[in-house]
Design brief:
This protein is mainly α. 47% of the residues lie in helices and 6% in strands. The strands form 4 sheets. The chain has a 4-stranded antiparallel sheet. It has a 3-stranded antiparallel sheet with strand order 5-8-9. Helix 1 runs antiparallel to helix 18 and helix 2 runs parallel beside helix 5.
Protein backbone atom coordinates (compact mmCIF):
# COMPACT_ATOMS: atom_id res chain seq x y z
CA UNK A 1 0.00 0.00 0.00
CA UNK A 2 1.16 3.54 -0.78
CA UNK A 3 2.93 4.95 2.32
CA UNK A 4 1.00 8.24 2.05
CA UNK A 5 -2.28 6.33 2.11
CA UNK A 6 -1.17 4.63 5.33
CA UNK A 7 -0.11 7.98 6.77
CA UNK A 8 -3.46 9.54 5.82
CA UNK A 9 -5.39 6.82 7.64
CA UNK A 10 -3.08 7.12 10.63
CA UNK A 11 -3.54 10.90 10.70
CA UNK A 12 -7.32 10.56 10.88
CA UNK A 13 -7.16 7.90 13.57
CA UNK A 14 -4.68 9.93 15.64
CA UNK A 15 -6.93 13.00 15.43
CA UNK A 16 -10.01 11.00 16.41
CA UNK A 17 -11.55 11.38 19.84
CA UNK A 18 -14.75 9.82 21.16
CA UNK A 19 -16.83 9.41 17.98
CA UNK A 20 -15.60 12.65 16.38
CA UNK A 21 -12.37 13.94 14.88
CA UNK A 22 -10.41 17.11 15.54
CA UNK A 23 -9.29 19.14 12.52
CA UNK A 24 -5.68 18.66 13.69
CA UNK A 25 -3.74 17.16 16.60
CA UNK A 26 -2.39 20.56 17.70
CA UNK A 27 -4.08 23.01 20.09
CA UNK A 28 -5.23 25.12 17.16
CA UNK A 29 -8.76 23.67 16.79
CA UNK A 30 -9.72 21.69 19.95
CA UNK A 31 -13.34 20.90 18.96
CA UNK A 32 -15.54 19.43 16.24
CA UNK A 33 -16.13 21.60 13.16
CA UNK A 34 -19.17 21.24 10.92
CA UNK A 35 -17.85 21.01 7.36
CA UNK A 36 -14.54 19.54 8.53
CA UNK A 37 -16.46 16.58 9.92
CA UNK A 38 -18.34 16.08 6.67
CA UNK A 39 -15.09 15.86 4.69
CA UNK A 40 -13.55 13.68 7.41
CA UNK A 41 -16.53 11.30 7.25
CA UNK A 42 -15.93 10.92 3.52
CA UNK A 43 -12.29 10.06 4.21
CA UNK A 44 -13.25 7.41 6.75
CA UNK A 45 -15.72 5.87 4.30
CA UNK A 46 -12.74 4.67 2.28
CA UNK A 47 -11.55 2.37 5.06
CA UNK A 48 -13.87 2.41 8.10
CA UNK A 49 -17.56 2.94 7.41
CA UNK A 50 -18.42 2.74 11.11
CA UNK A 51 -16.16 5.69 11.92
CA UNK A 52 -17.66 7.56 8.98
CA UNK A 53 -21.22 7.32 10.27
CA UNK A 54 -20.16 7.92 13.88
CA UNK A 55 -18.61 11.19 12.72
CA UNK A 56 -21.84 12.25 11.02
CA UNK A 57 -24.06 11.13 13.89
CA UNK A 58 -21.94 13.00 16.44
CA UNK A 59 -22.09 16.18 14.37
CA UNK A 60 -25.86 15.94 14.01
CA UNK A 61 -26.22 15.27 17.75
CA UNK A 62 -25.39 18.95 18.26
CA UNK A 63 -28.35 20.11 16.15
CA UNK A 64 -30.41 22.87 17.76
CA UNK A 65 -34.15 22.46 18.26
CA UNK A 66 -34.82 24.93 15.44
CA UNK A 67 -32.79 22.80 13.00
CA UNK A 68 -29.42 24.57 12.86
CA UNK A 69 -26.26 22.50 13.05
CA UNK A 70 -23.60 24.79 14.58
CA UNK A 71 -20.23 25.39 13.04
CA UNK A 72 -18.44 24.26 16.23
CA UNK A 73 -19.38 21.67 18.85
CA UNK A 74 -17.44 21.91 22.12
CA UNK A 75 -17.60 18.31 23.37
CA UNK A 76 -14.83 19.10 25.86
CA UNK A 77 -14.87 22.36 27.82
CA UNK A 78 -11.54 23.56 26.44
CA UNK A 79 -10.71 27.23 27.05
CA UNK A 80 -7.71 27.33 24.71
CA UNK A 81 -9.74 28.26 21.64
CA UNK A 82 -10.91 31.83 20.95
CA UNK A 83 -13.87 32.27 21.16
CA UNK A 84 -14.44 29.28 23.46
CA UNK A 85 -17.71 27.76 24.68
CA UNK A 86 -18.08 30.39 27.41
CA UNK A 87 -17.75 33.23 24.95
CA UNK A 88 -20.49 31.76 22.76
CA UNK A 89 -22.65 30.68 25.72
CA UNK A 90 -25.12 28.63 23.71
CA UNK A 91 -26.01 25.17 22.46
CA UNK A 92 -28.31 22.37 23.57
CA UNK A 93 -26.97 19.20 25.17
CA UNK A 94 -23.62 20.10 23.63
CA UNK A 95 -22.07 23.54 24.01
CA UNK A 96 -21.64 25.12 20.61
CA UNK A 97 -21.13 28.24 18.58
CA UNK A 98 -24.20 30.25 17.61
CA UNK A 99 -23.63 30.20 13.84
CA UNK A 100 -23.36 27.52 11.16
CA UNK A 101 -21.16 26.54 8.18
CA UNK A 102 -21.63 25.34 4.58
CA UNK A 103 -24.12 22.41 4.65
CA UNK A 104 -22.02 20.05 2.55
CA UNK A 105 -23.05 17.12 4.73
CA UNK A 106 -26.01 16.17 2.48
CA UNK A 107 -23.70 15.89 -0.54
CA UNK A 108 -21.13 13.86 1.38
CA UNK A 109 -23.80 11.46 2.66
CA UNK A 110 -25.11 10.93 -0.87
CA UNK A 111 -21.61 10.13 -2.16
CA UNK A 112 -21.03 7.60 0.62
CA UNK A 113 -24.39 5.88 0.08
CA UNK A 114 -23.97 5.71 -3.70
CA UNK A 115 -20.40 4.44 -3.56
CA UNK A 116 -21.26 1.78 -1.02
CA UNK A 117 -24.17 0.73 -3.26
CA UNK A 118 -26.57 0.70 -0.31
CA UNK A 119 -29.92 -0.91 -0.95
CA UNK A 120 -33.08 1.05 -0.14
CA UNK A 121 -33.46 -1.17 2.90
CA UNK A 122 -30.01 -0.26 4.17
CA UNK A 123 -30.54 3.46 3.53
CA UNK A 124 -33.69 3.22 5.68
CA UNK A 125 -31.34 2.60 8.63
CA UNK A 126 -30.13 6.17 8.18
CA UNK A 127 -33.59 7.70 7.75
CA UNK A 128 -33.24 9.68 10.99
CA UNK A 129 -29.99 11.25 9.78
CA UNK A 130 -31.52 12.18 6.44
CA UNK A 131 -34.58 13.76 8.04
CA UNK A 132 -32.39 15.78 10.41
CA UNK A 133 -30.40 17.07 7.45
CA UNK A 134 -33.72 17.99 5.85
CA UNK A 135 -34.63 19.98 8.98
CA UNK A 136 -31.24 21.69 8.78
CA UNK A 137 -31.66 22.77 5.16
CA UNK A 138 -35.20 23.97 5.81
CA UNK A 139 -33.76 26.07 8.65
CA UNK A 140 -31.66 27.97 6.09
CA UNK A 141 -34.68 28.70 3.94
CA UNK A 142 -36.80 29.77 6.89
CA UNK A 143 -34.26 31.94 8.71
CA UNK A 144 -31.58 32.90 6.17
CA UNK A 145 -34.04 33.81 3.44
CA UNK A 146 -37.11 34.93 5.39
CA UNK A 147 -38.18 37.18 2.49
CA UNK A 148 -38.08 34.20 0.09
CA UNK A 149 -35.74 35.96 -2.31
CA UNK A 150 -34.29 32.61 -3.36
CA UNK A 151 -30.85 33.50 -1.98
CA UNK A 152 -29.37 32.35 1.33
CA UNK A 153 -27.48 34.81 3.55
CA UNK A 154 -24.52 34.26 5.84
CA UNK A 155 -24.40 36.46 8.93
CA UNK A 156 -20.75 36.07 9.90
CA UNK A 157 -17.63 35.50 7.75
CA UNK A 158 -16.96 32.33 9.76
CA UNK A 159 -20.16 30.84 8.38
CA UNK A 160 -18.66 30.77 4.90
CA UNK A 161 -15.77 28.55 6.03
CA UNK A 162 -13.33 30.92 4.28
CA UNK A 163 -13.02 33.31 7.19
CA UNK A 164 -10.72 36.15 6.09
CA UNK A 165 -11.32 36.00 2.36
CA UNK A 166 -11.07 39.34 0.55
CA UNK A 167 -14.71 38.68 -0.35
CA UNK A 168 -15.53 40.12 3.07
CA UNK A 169 -13.18 43.13 3.07
CA UNK A 170 -15.78 45.59 1.83
CA UNK A 171 -18.71 44.52 4.05
CA UNK A 172 -16.39 44.05 7.05
CA UNK A 173 -15.00 47.57 6.63
CA UNK A 174 -18.48 48.84 7.54
CA UNK A 175 -18.52 47.00 10.89
CA UNK A 176 -17.84 49.41 13.74
CA UNK A 177 -15.53 47.64 16.18
CA UNK A 178 -16.76 47.40 19.77
CA UNK A 179 -14.55 49.62 21.96
CA UNK A 180 -14.84 47.24 24.93
CA UNK A 181 -13.59 44.05 23.31
CA UNK A 182 -11.93 41.60 25.66
CA UNK A 183 -10.42 38.47 24.14
CA UNK A 184 -7.03 36.80 23.76
CA UNK A 185 -6.00 35.03 20.60
CA UNK A 186 -3.89 31.89 20.70
CA UNK A 187 -4.06 30.85 17.05
CA UNK A 188 -1.30 33.25 16.01
CA UNK A 189 0.99 31.85 18.68
CA UNK A 190 0.52 28.28 17.46
CA UNK A 191 0.82 29.23 13.76
CA UNK A 192 2.93 32.07 12.32
CA UNK A 193 1.14 35.43 12.43
CA UNK A 194 1.89 35.89 8.73
CA UNK A 195 -0.36 32.91 7.99
CA UNK A 196 -3.33 33.92 10.16
CA UNK A 197 -6.05 36.62 9.98
CA UNK A 198 -5.08 40.13 11.11
CA UNK A 199 -6.04 41.66 14.47
CA UNK A 200 -8.54 44.00 12.81
CA UNK A 201 -10.23 40.95 11.27
CA UNK A 202 -10.57 39.28 14.66
CA UNK A 203 -11.81 42.49 16.27
CA UNK A 204 -14.62 42.54 13.73
CA UNK A 205 -15.32 38.80 14.03
CA UNK A 206 -15.71 39.13 17.79
CA UNK A 207 -17.77 42.33 17.48
CA UNK A 208 -20.24 40.55 15.18
CA UNK A 209 -20.25 37.46 17.41
CA UNK A 210 -20.95 39.53 20.54
CA UNK A 211 -23.83 41.27 18.80
CA UNK A 212 -25.37 37.94 17.79
CA UNK A 213 -25.09 36.81 21.41
CA UNK A 214 -26.81 40.01 22.59
CA UNK A 215 -29.69 39.02 20.31
CA UNK A 216 -29.71 35.59 22.02
CA UNK A 217 -29.01 34.00 18.62
CA UNK A 218 -32.70 34.43 17.88
CA UNK A 219 -32.98 33.28 14.25
CA UNK A 220 -36.07 35.41 13.70
CA UNK A 221 -34.07 38.57 14.46
CA UNK A 222 -30.57 37.83 13.18
CA UNK A 223 -31.20 38.18 9.44
CA UNK A 224 -32.58 41.69 9.93
CA UNK A 225 -30.23 42.92 12.67
CA UNK A 226 -26.83 41.28 12.14
CA UNK A 227 -23.91 43.64 11.46
CA UNK A 228 -22.99 41.40 8.51
CA UNK A 229 -25.41 40.00 5.93
CA UNK A 230 -23.99 38.72 2.63
CA UNK A 231 -25.32 36.49 -0.14
CA UNK A 232 -22.20 34.52 -1.05
CA UNK A 233 -22.11 32.66 -4.35
CA UNK A 234 -19.82 29.92 -3.04
CA UNK A 235 -22.02 29.22 -0.04
CA UNK A 236 -25.18 29.25 -2.13
CA UNK A 237 -23.57 26.85 -4.60
CA UNK A 238 -22.92 24.34 -1.83
CA UNK A 239 -26.43 24.91 -0.49
CA UNK A 240 -28.03 24.34 -3.89
CA UNK A 241 -26.09 21.10 -4.33
CA UNK A 242 -27.09 20.06 -0.81
CA UNK A 243 -30.76 20.56 -1.70
CA UNK A 244 -30.40 18.47 -4.85
CA UNK A 245 -28.60 15.70 -3.00
CA UNK A 246 -31.12 15.75 -0.16
CA UNK A 247 -33.91 15.38 -2.74
CA UNK A 248 -32.11 12.28 -4.02
CA UNK A 249 -31.76 10.85 -0.50
CA UNK A 250 -35.41 11.50 0.33
CA UNK A 251 -36.48 9.42 -2.67
CA UNK A 252 -34.33 6.60 -1.32
CA UNK A 253 -36.40 6.52 1.87
CA UNK A 254 -39.74 7.02 0.12
CA UNK A 255 -40.16 10.67 1.10
CA UNK A 256 -40.92 13.69 -1.06
CA UNK A 257 -40.76 17.43 -0.49
CA UNK A 258 -42.44 19.72 -3.01
CA UNK A 259 -41.31 22.64 -0.81
CA UNK A 260 -37.63 21.80 -1.32
CA UNK A 261 -38.14 21.14 -5.03
CA UNK A 262 -39.66 24.59 -5.48
CA UNK A 263 -36.81 26.21 -3.59
CA UNK A 264 -34.23 24.40 -5.75
CA UNK A 265 -35.77 26.02 -8.83
CA UNK A 266 -36.00 29.41 -7.12
CA UNK A 267 -32.43 29.32 -5.75
CA UNK A 268 -30.97 28.29 -9.10
CA UNK A 269 -32.87 30.93 -11.07
CA UNK A 270 -31.79 33.70 -8.69
CA UNK A 271 -28.14 32.57 -8.67
CA UNK A 272 -28.05 32.68 -12.47
CA UNK A 273 -29.06 36.35 -12.25
CA UNK A 274 -25.88 37.05 -10.24
CA UNK A 275 -23.82 35.94 -13.23
CA UNK A 276 -22.16 38.49 -15.51
CA UNK A 277 -21.81 36.85 -18.92
CA UNK A 278 -19.43 39.54 -20.23
CA UNK A 279 -16.98 39.03 -17.37
CA UNK A 280 -17.82 35.30 -17.05
CA UNK A 281 -18.07 35.60 -13.27
CA UNK A 282 -20.56 35.78 -10.41
CA UNK A 283 -20.98 38.58 -7.90
CA UNK A 284 -21.86 38.51 -4.21
CA UNK A 285 -24.53 40.72 -2.70
CA UNK A 286 -23.84 42.68 0.49
CA UNK A 287 -27.41 43.04 1.70
CA UNK A 288 -26.44 45.01 4.80
CA UNK A 289 -24.93 47.82 2.72
CA UNK A 290 -26.87 47.26 -0.52
CA UNK A 291 -23.79 46.80 -2.69
CA UNK A 292 -22.25 44.12 -4.90
CA UNK A 293 -18.88 42.46 -4.36
CA UNK A 294 -16.79 41.02 -7.18
CA UNK A 295 -13.57 39.36 -6.04
CA UNK A 296 -11.80 36.58 -8.01
CA UNK A 297 -12.15 33.88 -5.37
CA UNK A 298 -11.86 30.16 -6.11
CA UNK A 299 -15.13 29.72 -4.22
CA UNK A 300 -17.00 31.41 -7.08
CA UNK A 301 -16.26 28.27 -9.09
CA UNK A 302 -18.13 26.15 -6.54
CA UNK A 303 -21.03 26.80 -8.90
CA UNK A 304 -19.66 23.95 -11.01
CA UNK A 305 -20.36 21.64 -8.06
CA UNK A 306 -23.96 22.91 -7.94
CA UNK A 307 -24.60 21.37 -11.38
CA UNK A 308 -26.52 24.30 -12.80
CA UNK A 309 -29.00 23.41 -15.49
CA UNK A 310 -27.23 25.90 -17.76
CA UNK A 311 -24.61 24.50 -20.13
CA UNK A 312 -23.53 27.93 -21.35
CA UNK A 313 -22.63 29.18 -17.86
CA UNK A 314 -20.93 25.87 -17.05
CA UNK A 315 -18.78 26.10 -20.18
CA UNK A 316 -17.88 29.73 -19.51
CA UNK A 317 -16.99 28.97 -15.89
CA UNK A 318 -14.65 26.18 -16.99
CA UNK A 319 -13.00 28.51 -19.47
CA UNK A 320 -12.63 31.15 -16.77
CA UNK A 321 -11.27 28.59 -14.28
CA UNK A 322 -8.56 27.52 -16.73
CA UNK A 323 -7.57 31.14 -17.15
CA UNK A 324 -7.63 31.62 -13.35
CA UNK A 325 -5.10 28.81 -12.86
CA UNK A 326 -3.10 29.19 -16.09
CA UNK A 327 0.16 30.46 -14.59
CA UNK A 328 0.02 28.66 -11.23
CA UNK A 329 2.37 25.84 -10.37
CA UNK A 330 -0.05 24.56 -7.71
CA UNK A 331 -3.87 24.55 -7.96
CA UNK A 332 -5.91 26.49 -6.87
CA UNK A 333 -5.04 29.76 -5.12
CA UNK A 334 -7.97 30.78 -2.94
CA UNK A 335 -7.72 34.27 -4.49
CA UNK A 336 -6.38 34.95 -7.96
CA UNK A 337 -2.68 35.76 -7.65
CA UNK A 338 -3.22 38.65 -10.09
CA UNK A 339 -5.63 40.42 -7.74
CA UNK A 340 -4.43 43.22 -5.45
CA UNK A 341 -5.82 41.47 -2.35
CA UNK A 342 -3.80 38.27 -2.95
CA UNK A 343 -1.48 37.21 -0.13
CA UNK A 344 0.55 34.08 -0.74
CA UNK A 345 0.62 32.86 2.86
CA UNK A 346 -2.32 34.37 4.73
CA UNK A 347 -5.04 31.80 5.33
CA UNK A 348 -7.92 32.34 2.84
CA UNK A 349 -6.30 35.25 1.00
CA UNK A 350 -4.22 33.20 -1.43
CA UNK A 351 -3.16 29.72 -0.25
CA UNK A 352 -4.32 26.46 -1.84
CA UNK A 353 -6.94 24.50 0.12
CA UNK A 354 -7.50 20.84 -0.73
CA UNK A 355 -11.22 20.98 0.02
CA UNK A 356 -11.68 23.65 -2.67
CA UNK A 357 -9.85 21.46 -5.16
CA UNK A 358 -12.06 18.51 -4.20
CA UNK A 359 -15.30 20.53 -4.58
CA UNK A 360 -14.27 21.79 -8.01
CA UNK A 361 -13.06 18.35 -9.10
CA UNK A 362 -16.45 16.89 -8.18
CA UNK A 363 -18.14 19.61 -10.24
CA UNK A 364 -15.86 19.10 -13.23
CA UNK A 365 -15.55 15.32 -13.53
CA UNK A 366 -18.74 15.03 -15.61
CA UNK A 367 -18.21 18.30 -17.50
CA UNK A 368 -14.51 18.28 -18.43
CA UNK A 369 -12.92 14.94 -17.50
CA UNK A 370 -9.49 15.87 -18.83
CA UNK A 371 -9.20 19.03 -16.73
CA UNK A 372 -10.73 17.25 -13.72
CA UNK A 373 -8.03 14.59 -13.95
CA UNK A 374 -5.33 17.26 -14.05
CA UNK A 375 -6.75 18.73 -10.83
CA UNK A 376 -6.87 15.30 -9.18
CA UNK A 377 -3.27 14.48 -10.07
CA UNK A 378 -1.93 17.91 -9.15
CA UNK A 379 -3.63 17.76 -5.75
CA UNK A 380 -2.34 14.26 -5.04
CA UNK A 381 1.19 15.26 -6.03
CA UNK A 382 1.12 18.37 -3.83
CA UNK A 383 -0.06 16.45 -0.77
CA UNK A 384 2.35 13.57 -1.29
CA UNK A 385 5.18 16.08 -1.59
CA UNK A 386 4.25 18.37 1.31
CA UNK A 387 2.09 16.04 3.49
CA UNK A 388 -1.15 16.89 5.27
CA UNK A 389 -0.95 20.61 5.89
CA UNK A 390 -3.91 22.92 6.38
CA UNK A 391 -3.08 24.96 3.26
CA UNK A 392 -0.25 25.49 0.77
CA UNK A 393 1.47 28.20 -1.25
CA UNK A 394 0.31 28.25 -4.88
CA UNK A 395 3.81 29.46 -5.80
CA UNK A 396 6.19 27.12 -3.93
CA UNK A 397 3.89 24.44 -2.56
CA UNK A 398 5.03 25.35 0.96
CA UNK A 399 2.80 23.67 3.53
CA UNK A 400 1.37 26.12 6.07
CA UNK A 401 -1.05 26.37 8.97
CA UNK A 402 -1.74 23.23 10.98
CA UNK A 403 0.15 20.00 10.45
CA UNK A 404 -1.58 16.61 10.26
CA UNK A 405 -4.73 18.32 9.03
CA UNK A 406 -7.69 15.96 8.99
CA UNK A 407 -9.63 17.09 5.94
CA UNK A 408 -6.46 17.17 3.85
CA UNK A 409 -5.77 13.56 4.83
CA UNK A 410 -9.41 12.59 4.27
CA UNK A 411 -9.70 14.20 0.84
CA UNK A 412 -6.30 12.90 -0.23
CA UNK A 413 -7.68 9.41 0.40
CA UNK A 414 -10.75 10.28 -1.62
CA UNK A 415 -8.72 11.64 -4.54
CA UNK A 416 -6.35 8.69 -4.45
CA UNK A 417 -8.86 5.88 -4.09
CA UNK A 418 -11.82 7.14 -6.15
CA UNK A 419 -12.50 8.63 -9.55
CA UNK A 420 -16.27 8.69 -9.18
Amino acid sequence: MNSTIKFAKKTLINNRRSNYTLPTNTKLYPAQWNWDSAFIALGYSNFNLDYSFKEIETLISGQWDDGMIPHILFHIKDLNYTPNYKAWNCGGKISSSGITQPPILASILRIIIERQKFSKKKVKKYQTLILKIKKYLKWFIRYRDPKRTGLISILHPWESGYDNSPLWDKPMSKVKIDSKLNYKRKDNKIVKKSQRPLKIDYDRYVTIKNHLRQLNYDPKKLYFKSKFNVVDVGFNSLFLKALKDLDFLLKFIGKKSSFLKKYILLNESKLVKLYNSKKMKFKNKDLKNNTSVEIPSITNFFMLFADLNNNLINRELIKSLKKYSKNEKYFFPSISSKHKSFEEKRYWRGPVWVNCNWIIYQGLKNKDKKFAEIIRKKTINLVEKKKFREYYSCKSGLGMGAKNFSWTAALYLDFKLNRS
